[in-house]
Amino acid sequence: MKKLVPIFLALTFLSLITLNVAAFAGKGIIHGKVVEEVGGLVVPFAGVALYESGAEQALFTTQTDENGDFKFINLKPGSYKVKISSVGFSILFISEILLTEKDFEKNLGTIKLSSEASTLTEVVITAQKPVVEFGADIITYNVGSSILAEGSTATDVLKNVPMVQVDIDGNATISGKRSTRVFIDGKPSEYMTSNIADLLNVLPSDAIEKIEVMTNPPSKYSGDGEGILNIVLKKGFRVGFNGNVGVTAGLQGNTNTNVNASYKGKDYSVNGGGAYGQNVGKSDGEVYRKNIFADTTFYNNQFNNNRNENERNFVRLGLNWDITPKQNLRLSTNYNKSDNENRSGNDFHYINEALEEVRLRNQQNLGAGNSNNFVINADYNLQTDTSGGKLSMGLTFNTNSNNNYRTFNRRYAFPTNLNPTLQQNSNETENNGLTFNLDYDKPLFKKRDRFEFGLAYNYRKNDNDLLVENFNFTSQQYITDDKLTNRFFYNENILGAYTAYNYRKNGWGAKTGIRAELTDVKFDLSTGERYHVSPYLSLFPNISLNRFFRKRYNFGATYSVRINRPRENALNPQVNNADSLNISYGNPDLTPAYTHQMDLSFGAFGNKWSFTPRISYSRSMGVIERYRTVNQSGVSESTFKNVGANTAFSLMLNGNYRPTQKITTNASFSVFQTKYTSQLNTSLNRDGFSLRAVLGLSMQLPYKTAFESNVNYANRLNAQGRSRGSVNSSFGARKNFFKNTLSVRVSTNDPFGRRNNIIFNQGNNFISESYSTNNSSNVSLSLSYRFSKIKSTKPTAPAPPKI
């Protein structure tokens, strides 16, 4: 049955994209041309959505062609509004477009988009966007349009984003990519916290505008990672005072309360928000491991249970100030704090070759921890000339601390003559970081082309202090374990520079760029070991070619080089023996892994549908992955290794289809063929397929009611095994009251059973299978109230004509 799930999802997806598109009965036409406000350069591939007046969901969506033109045809008489959006520009709405039998064609003329740094010329009305928008090399998940996203956190939202996988620990990755970076407003989030999963679990969804999945980041971004997840926060674009208050409660003990507000005046805007939440996580697991040696074979079976209670707080503030018509300053800061308590138990069964149990150990674990994270950002933008040249400078400072305290009480049920042990660990971690960037871009040759260059500097410091103490039952005192106690110091400096050139003409677009980064890393231990990685220079070329033709088709090809640098968590040799049968530690001898990746994409767009298949190929050398060995005593040791080379070939099918005005579907199906080759260990020479599928449905129902569902399937290969197929699902319904100011949402996650995780691993001398479940089955209720006091704002000249 499990094998049929991906086949079923694939067939469902293919059936959706092959349905015939029926034209609306009518002869009405709305068309126009989109250009940049400064310089008048056309804006190709901008998203254009058509709404019936008063509707929450778009009637049709399209893109501007290579000349910035768009057109909607076959429209019925009525009143419409148009929304135009493009990356780097403020969203523009044109309302009160009236079509009649006598006046059935409306030319909106030349429509000018302003940059995000200059938001005073926009006409803004709240409206519903499509939940998922597929582009040639980017997927955009509009959080505000998703019912399932309301009243949740960034981690919950990411679980429903196409091509994104979230593991049981809350770590998000792009499917088919081994290293994914998570950005907040275009800046790396790993500089903001010691644990990205903690940050995502505390960031409320109501503070997020959209999530961008970038499979081929441009040269402006650091060469780190094979892909980027960029979380874009709301900035408060509307004139006047507006915001929302929300509360969510679930049957599993999860609660969340948040408030967000913004005020926009003549030349400035301020925004802010806060959240408080609690969460209870429960899980159970079983691990069966067969240990194979030349003289014997024995078994270790392990049964685990875990309960984790988490309390979190989040506060953010922002200021956007238009100093002059050519200068803009944006300041933002956020602070988050979390506290957690953990209780878990482990039963370890030791079984000999004759399948006789010779030892049983019970372990009880207690833990508590807290983290504090503070970030401040400053961005300055200057328009350098009338042709559209722009200089941007950014500075980010962050500091965070993470403290964890745990005790491990180990006793033997039999044989009873074995002595118990009691251990306590204190782990205090501090991170500090500073990033600076200077970017300049300018239109050239009658504003047809664009030239970019920039500099960047990143600094980060990590201090990890681990104290391990064992209880002496004779003296009734804790004694420091010198073998496990140490302090890890890490310093990293990266200096980067890039240049890029963007060419556009007659439907063709080409962009080429190269980025250079000089990396200097030093780290050492309090026990005396010192490491200095010799500074190394890395070059990252990036080439993309795009062709837009017949106003509905788009073809793209890209090539880039990316790097996966080993960072403190992978380099730190401190031993984690919380599970003494399965210990783990870092590897200070790791070297960077480089990946060459190529994509071919095709896009087809209609009034009711879009289809964007993509073929990708990548070749990685020195791949960094976890590597496990088992010693003669049966203890599994897990560390990071440069396991060898990896070749991956993937086919991704993404699409949207809107069969009616009230129903929208989106689907994504990916298959990856992966091959590992290694000189480290012949057991790593393996190949196989990984699958990923997402199917989503949203419906606008009568009486201001809406419904949304999402089903995910994943099955992934790794260097030493496979994470076997699992299915998770989400369903939600929402009803609005009082002119859409109050919304009530009921949602359920995994209603058909708790999420199961099955992992198979195999090495030279062991075979392991693990099964785990968590309390993912949940029903929650959310209430959200939106308040607004908006002034009537007219666009300043030049502006779209009034219809």
Structural account:
- This protein has 803 residues and is mainly beta.
- It folds into two domains: 4-127, Immunoglobulin-like (Sandwich); 264-789, Maltoporin, Chain A (Beta Barrel).
- It is built from four helices and 42 strands.
- The strands form five sheets. The protein has a 27-stranded mixed sheet that branches. The chain has a six-stranded mixed sheet with strand order 8-9-14-15-12-13, with no helix packed on it.
- Strand 31 (593-605) and strand 32 (609-611) form a beta hairpin.
- The termini are far apart.
- Mean pLDDT is 82; it is low at 1-25, 117-128 and 791-803.
CATH topology of the largest domain: Maltoporin, Chain A
- How much beta, percentage-wise? over 45%
Mean model confidence by pLDDT: 82
Structural class, by secondary structure, is: mainly beta
Count of discrete structural domains = 2
Biggest sheet features: 27 strands, mixed
Oligomer: single chain
Rg over CA atoms: 28 Å
Regions with pLDDT < 50 over 5+ consecutive residues?
Answer: 1-25, 117-128, 791-803
Helix fraction by DSSP (H/I, runs of at least 4)? under 10%
- Number of helices, where a helix is a run of at least 4 consecutive DSSP H or I residues: 4
CATH superfamily of the largest domain: TonB-dependent receptor, beta-barrel domain
CATH structural architecture of the largest domain: Beta Barrel
Shape: globular
Through-space gap between termini: 57 Å
Pfam family, one: CarboxypepD_reg
Protein name: Outer membrane receptor proteins, mostly Fe transport
Subcellular location: Cell outer membrane
InterPro entries: Beta-barrel_TonB_sf, CarboxyPept-like_regulatory, Ig-like_fold, OMP_b-brl_3, Plug_dom_sf
